[in-house]
């Protein structure tokens, strides 16, 4: 069940041992025989999720399968139901969205696939909506600055999508989905061995949505799109413990929103907004044991993405390119593990229409990490990275973490620093294009100090978690109006502060799971007037959720969700200064007979729509070029989707 694009709550399908303390050695073997061990991939040294000093939230395969029947075309639903993570619509015209983590701007979140930036060093806002969940094995979420591990693009956190690997036997899956809003999805996954050491897989998807003007104002509340994706993968596992992973990806999409044929915006003109996207990427991961205690790791990726944007009568033709390479050595000696390496990342943007905004960021760097198991209950970790940015000079990014596990408790703490290199692509410019933006001036690099303290308790079927988090951001960028039709990007003079709490209580027993959650976020920034502080727009202070799932494994699944989103401060909205609070309810049912599953999902049972309360269109075009207010609630209203899923092989 989906919380759509405006909610941020803990997921209903947490791994069973997610907050559990590590059992004694004589108990661990029996437990691992009953339950799959979840190995985290995104913190340099792969290890069990409960052994990581840095808190990593893992969504396992069983939950991904649940979300795949809700939104087969993208991962927005999947990441949106993790505590402190919020998927926010940034362009109501095209449905662009980004991922906000613990109240930080979405541009600070790094989206990875198998530890590789396959979607670019700074993924475009539509990237989230162009990734099907079909072939994912697990999703890892790391909150707070992770620049010490991943560089400038991970100031706010990381979403790491880990793909399934081919097994020892053939397997295949196909899913067909239709919606009550005239949307269709078809996805497939095929994998199997070609030898004792080599496996291949292929993921494909075809997705379509027709434009929907639900409130009848002549503007598409849901844009139309046609999208095709394909991703072949190769996995090699050597007898000596070495491995090679190769992935290739291709995606093409045509997306159209704005005014419908024959309709106009308030100034009497038509304004069609459209985007054509072609993306190609490739990634390589190599692991090679050098000795019993040392391992060489190599990672690399390239991404090329062409866009043709249409903003009314303005056509923007541009290209994004990203290149990444890294080599590291991991050394383990008893309770101590060391990682050291070098990295290089290049992000390039070229616009045929507005070449004044072209940029190339080349960033070589060196990094290191040490973890020390001081006692059975206490693990300490420190990471550091020095990046030599071609535009913003030398940047130092440290992170310190500790893990303490007394009895049934697990306590984690982290402090870190990171940085972000400004680009023209803040949310408003992603939504409206570059035609009204002044060339970038002498901007300073954005930096953040983040901290978190996490308490978890597990006893039988009960799990509880409380997290305190905070961040101070210096030189955050803001879009500033300088004329009725001109804007510029400036650094905020002062500190943007984020403080918050996540609470979770979960009960799981005999196929029945109930999860309650609450998130508090207080995000403020210096007021543009220069006097006092104001709340960061589109960041609800209070949100909560209740999810109940019953599952008879392999036979049936029923689920119910209820989410609450509190008031949000709004910016440049002539209809209201604060949004209305609202509830979002959903139901899910699935029945499985052998290799065939039938599913039906009902989202937004209360038919909450922003346009039931206010118009979406502005009375006149904003200085940035936007024709709509910000989206603070769902736009599509009540929606049904259903279909069939077929599984073959193992």
Compile the SSE list and pairings:
Elements (H helix, E strand, L loop, with lengths): L24 H10 L4 E2 L6 E2 L7 E4 L1 H8 L7 H5 L4 E7 L4 E6 L7 E5 L22 E8 L3 H4 L6 E7 L7 E9 L3 E11 L4 E12 L14 E14 L5 E16 L13 E18 L4 E18 L2 E20 L2 E16 L7 E15 L4 E12 L3 E12 L4 E12 L6 H6 L13 E14 L2 E13 L2 E7 L2 E6 L3 E15 L2 E15 L6 E3 L6 E11 L3 E10 L16 E12 L2 E8 L35 E11 L1
Parallel strand pairs: 6-8
Antiparallel strand pairs: 1-2, 3-7, 4-5, 7-8, 9-10, 9-33, 10-11, 11-12, 12-13, 13-14, 14-15, 15-16, 16-17, 17-18, 18-19, 19-20, 20-21, 21-22, 22-23, 23-26, 24-25, 26-27, 27-28, 27-29, 29-30, 30-31, 31-32, 32-33
Biggest β-sheet strands, sense, barrel? 22 strands, antiparallel, barrel
CATH architecture classification name: Beta Barrel
Strand-residue proportion: over 45%
Give the fraction of residues assigned to helices.
under 10%
| Broad CATH class | Mainly Beta
Q: How many individual β-strands?
A: 33
Basic shape: globular
How many structurally independent domains? 1
Instruction: Please tell me the overall pLDDT.
Output: 90
* Helix run count: 5
Integer-rounded radius of gyration: 24 Å
CATH third-tier fold name:
Maltoporin, Chain A
Quaternary assembly: single chain
What distance separates the N and C termini? 26 Å
- Name the CATH homologous superfamily: TonB-dependent receptor, beta-barrel domain
Structural class: mainly beta
Task: Give the uncertain stretches in residue-range form.
Answer: 1-35
């Amino acid at each position: 069940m989906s919380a759509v694009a405006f909610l941020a709550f803990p997921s209903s399908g947490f791994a069973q041992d997610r907050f559990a303390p590590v059992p004694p050695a004589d108990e661990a073997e029996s437990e691992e025989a009953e339950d799959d061990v979840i190995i985290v991939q995104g913190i340099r040294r792969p290890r069990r999720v409960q052994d990581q000093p840095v808190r990593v939230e893992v969504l396992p395969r069983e939950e991904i399968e649940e979300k795949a029947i809700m939104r087969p075309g993208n991962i927005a639903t999947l990441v949106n139901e993790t505590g402190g993570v919020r998927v926010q619509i940034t362009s109501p015209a095209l449905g662009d969205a980004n991922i906000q983590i613990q109240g930080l701007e979405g541009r600070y979140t790094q989206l990875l696939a198998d530890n590789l930036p396959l979607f670019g060093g700074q993924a475009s806002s539509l990237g989230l909506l162009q990734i099907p969940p079909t072939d994912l094995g697990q999703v890892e979420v790391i909150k707070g600055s992770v620049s010490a591990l991943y560089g400038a693009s991970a100031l706010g956190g990381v979403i790491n999508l880990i793909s399934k690997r081919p097994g020892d036997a053939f397997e295949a899956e196909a899913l067909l989905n239709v919606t009550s809003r005239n949307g269709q999805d078809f996805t497939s996954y095929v994998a199997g061995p070609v030898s004792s050491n080599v496996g291949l897989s292929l993921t494909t998807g075809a997705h379509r949505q027709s434009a929907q003007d639900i409130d009848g104002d002549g503007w598409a509340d849901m844009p139309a799109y046609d999208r095709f994706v394909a991703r072949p993968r190769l996995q090699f596992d050597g007898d000596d413990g070495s491995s090679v992973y190769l992935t290739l990806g291709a995606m093409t999409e045509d997306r159209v929103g704005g005014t419908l044929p024959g309709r106009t915006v308030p100034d009497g003109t038509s304004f069609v907004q459209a985007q054509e996207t072609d993306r190609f990427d490739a990634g390589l991961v190599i692991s090679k044991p050098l000795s019993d205690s040392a391992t060489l790791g190599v990672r690399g990726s390239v991404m090329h993405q062409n866009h043709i944007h249409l903003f009314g009568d303005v056509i923007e033709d541009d290209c994004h390119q990203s290149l990444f390479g890294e080599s590291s050595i991991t050394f383990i000696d008893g309770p101590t593990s060391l990682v050291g390496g070098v990295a290089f990342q290049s992000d390039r943007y070229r616009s045929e229409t507005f070449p004044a905004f072209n940029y190339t960021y080349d960033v070589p760097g060196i990094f290191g990490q040490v973890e020390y198991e001081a006692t059975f209950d206490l693990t300490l970790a420190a990471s550091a990275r020095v990046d030599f940015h071609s535009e913003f000079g030398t940047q130092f990014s440290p992170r310190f973490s500790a893990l303490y596990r007394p009895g049934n408790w697990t306590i984690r703490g982290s402090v870190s620093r990171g940085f972000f290199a400004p680009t023209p692509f803040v949310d408003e410019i992603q939504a409206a294009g570059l035609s009204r933006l002044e060339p970038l001036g002498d901007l300073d690099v954005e930096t953040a100090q983040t901290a978190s303290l996490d308490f978890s308790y597990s006893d039988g079927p009960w799990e509880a978690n409380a997290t305190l988090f905070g961040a101070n951001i210096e030189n955050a960028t803001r879009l500033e109006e300088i004329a009725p039709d001109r804007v510029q990007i400036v650094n905020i003079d002062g500190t943007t502060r984020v403080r918050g709490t996540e609470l979770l209580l979960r009960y799981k027993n005999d196929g029945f799971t109930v999860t309650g959650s609450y998130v508090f976020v207080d995000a403020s920034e210096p007021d543009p007037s220069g006097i006092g502080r104001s709340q960061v727009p589109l960041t609800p202070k209070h949100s909560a959720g209740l999810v109940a799932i019953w599952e008879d494994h392999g036979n049936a699944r029923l689920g119910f969700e209820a989410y609450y989103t509190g008031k949000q401060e709004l910016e440049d909205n002539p209809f209201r200064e604060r949004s209305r609070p609202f509830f979002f309810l959903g139901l899910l049912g699935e029945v499985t007979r052998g290799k065939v599953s039938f599913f039906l999902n009902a989202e937004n049972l209360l038919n909450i729509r922003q346009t039931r309360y206010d118009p979406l269109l502005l009375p006149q075009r904003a200085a940035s070029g936007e024709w709509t207010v910000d989206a603070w609630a769902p736009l599509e209203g009540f929606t049904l989707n259903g279909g069939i899923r077929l599984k073959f092989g193992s």
